[in-house]
UniProtKB/TrEMBL annotation:
Keywords: NAD, Oxidoreductase. CDD domains: HPPR. It holds the Pfam family 2-Hacid_dh. Residues 28-313 form the D-isomer specific 2-hydroxyacid dehydrogenase catalytic domain. SUPFAM superfamilies: Formate/glycerate dehydrogenase catalytic domain-like (SSF52283), NAD(P)-binding Rossmann-fold domains (SSF51735). This is 2-hydroxyacid dehydrogenase. It comes from the Bacteria.
């Protein structure tokens, strides 16, 4: 009898095929009446396969008495109710490392695209403005500027490494100075980090503790010439304060891959011309997503073979 798994979100065919071959997958995301669906499969389900942004709620966890393990397709597990997992002895796995460099690449690309006005430049060519209006307006330099990295974990480190290639003056904030940071400046206080930055990268793992760590004070310290780049989770920024700052000009600009309530976003974002909007795709390359899918499956297989989890969270 194959192990039965609750599948919270869709996966690409190259993952769905092997998952369906190895396990009995219950496609929760396709069910119309989710509550009823959970009740029907509750007696059999021993694992949850989910995505970073979807996670698993306490209600879901507690509806499945045979649940043993939750495998997250993503490095971020903030959407999994870890307290509920602890209460019920549920193991949790994620997909770190395999996505780090792609996420860092996209963050740096977002900085460049936004600072150099490349989206507007594309329209300038396509809509004929280049011939009718002439030269494209000048934009802001990136190289040699001051960068702040909030959260020097795996992703923050790769961002900083890339920024060093742009001769940027790099500082970072974290719970403590990191011995693997070369000559980058440690600045414990996020407000001070923002004050000394032209570009502020938000790269920390989201948790209850980091919620709105980028608050109004941090945003104002970054200032009218500053740019905030978020490739982590929306909850790390006070989105209301961010919107107001972008609208009033107390913050220069932003480049965002994540939003409160995504994929629906606050319509105020759509009115702004000083923000770059990306659809949460920093890990979205064929190579990384294939590696993430394999790691998600390998963790499930390891668990049900009684072997150590490859990338355990809990
Ligand atoms: C998503 C992510 O998991 O890794 C994370 O934490 O947010 C992303 O990689 C991805 O969209 C797949 O759901």
């Amino acid at each position: 009898e194959p192990v039965e798994i609750l599948q919270v979100g869709p996966y690409p065919d190259w993952d769905q095929g092997p998952l369906d071959a190895a396990f009995k997958m219950h496609r929760y995301f396709e069910a119309d009446d989710k509550e009823n669906y959970l009740k029907q499969v509750a007696g059999q389900v021993r694992a949850i396969a989910t995505r970073g942004e979807l996670g698993a709620t306490r209600a879901m966890i507690e509806a499945l008495p045979k649940l043993e393990v939750i495998s997250v397709y993503g490095v971020g597990y903030d959407a999994v109710d870890l307290a509920a997992c602890r209460d019920h002895g549920i193991r949790v796995t994620n997909t770190p490392d395999v996505l780090t460099k792609d996420v860092a690449d996209l963050g740096v690309a977002m900085m460049l695209v936004q600072s150099r006005g490349m989206i507007g430049a594309e329209s300038w060519v396509r809509d004929g403005s280049w011939s009718s209006k002439g030269l494209y307006p000048l934009k802001k330099r990136v190289f040699g500027k001051r960068a702040g990295v909030l959260g020097l974990g795996r992703i923050g480190f790769e961002v900083a490494k890339r920024l060093a290639g742009f001769d940027m003056d790099i500082a970072y904030s974290d719970v403590a100075a990191k011995d693997y940071a070369p000559d980058w400046t440690f600045e414990a206080d996020p407000i001070e980090l923002a004050r000394r930055s032209d570009f502020l990268f938000v790269t920390l793992a989201a948790s209850v503790q980091t919620r709105h760590i980028v608050n109004r004070d941090v945003i104002e310290a970054l200032g009218p010439e500053g740019m905030a780049i978020n490739i982590s989770r929306a909850s790390n920024i006070d989105e209301e304060a961010l919107l107001t700052a972008l609208e009033t000009g107390t913050l220069g600009s932003a480049a965002l891959d994540v939003f409160e309530g995504e994929p629906a976003l606050n319509p105020r974002f759509l009115e702004l011309d000083n923000v770059l909007l990306q659809p949460h795709h920093a890990s979205g390359t064929f190579e990384t997503r294939q590696a993430m899918g394999k790691l998600l499956r390998d963790n499930l297989t390891a668990h049900f073979n009684g072997e150590p989890l490859l990338t355990p969270v809990l």
